[in-house]
What we know:
about 375 residues; six-stranded antiparallel sheet; five-stranded antiparallel sheet; 11 strands
Amino acid sequence: MIRIKARAPTRRVFVRGPHRRSRRRALALALPTVWGAVAVTYKLACPLAQQTGLGARIATSAVFFAVGTGLVFHVRRALVRELRQVRKVAGAAQRVLLRPLPPRLDGLALAAAQLSADRGAAIGGDLYEVIATEHGVRVVMGDVRGHGLAAIGTVAALLGSFREAAHDEPGLERVLCRLDRALARHLRERSRAEHPAGGQEPEHPVAEEFATVLLLEIHPDGELHALNCGHPWPYLIGAHGVEALAGAEPLPPLGPFPLPRDLEVIRCGHLLPGESLVLYTDGAADARDAHGSFFSLPSVLRQTVDDRPVTPQAVLRTVFTALRRHIGGRPTDDIALLVLRNERRHTHALGARGTARHAPTDPQPTPHR
Length: 369
């Protein structure tokens, strides 16, 4: 008995990338060539173009005006198409680098936004991320020296290291050490790329580069742990108003100086149900108006206390509206804001200032999205 195995139908794979690009390039050159040929043919072969009368001159001018207009529209269309492609690539890079935060994460409502100082950049030198881990919800907020496209590599190195270390490391101090090593490795690689003729490992790679970093850890009971390397402390929005969540003197920024051998994680009290944390970069605090006056972030945040509930989206909308009105245009530095609101219903915790405090008996309803 002879068994015949059925052969799977073969699929033809067409590689259209290079051919499609060649076709587009040929079509892009065809239209200007046709317009140019029309103009040259008219000038050389049309008897009307040889005449010097007023009517003949008007006709010749109309022909060349039509040719020029066609070329201008063709170039404009090509530039618009290229601009759309660049914006599409920039948007994809932004979604990969600064991933959109979920509206809720482990009982916390989240919202974040950033404004780049470079008009042509969709992302800048600010970074943020929120990750739910078995150790609690871990948050990073950072600011890389410089802004725009030049700082994207450093932002990518820090965010990539945090996304791994947040899950792997049990202690917040170990997460910070991982970020410090990732930054040093990135700066060494960049220094070798910028000076390939040196041939040796640079002793102080890109010494002027640094990054401020704030690490937070929010436990299920709302207890807050923090490590701060030169970054502004966040603001706490609660029933008693707006106050700075300052635990201790910040450490130096990452990059210029080595971390202390014994890192001590700071306990900052508790984030109670209904309370919010506002993390920001120094671009918001250093923004000035035309008269040189600084933007007052605490004053704007106090306006949001009257809103019920104080949703993260409402806080962002209020702050960015007031900020744009204050600076009257585009900022001179990148600005990023991250708002976290505790919407956990059953949280038994100590008070945020170390005193016993019960959860509110009438918590705010959790919005459904």
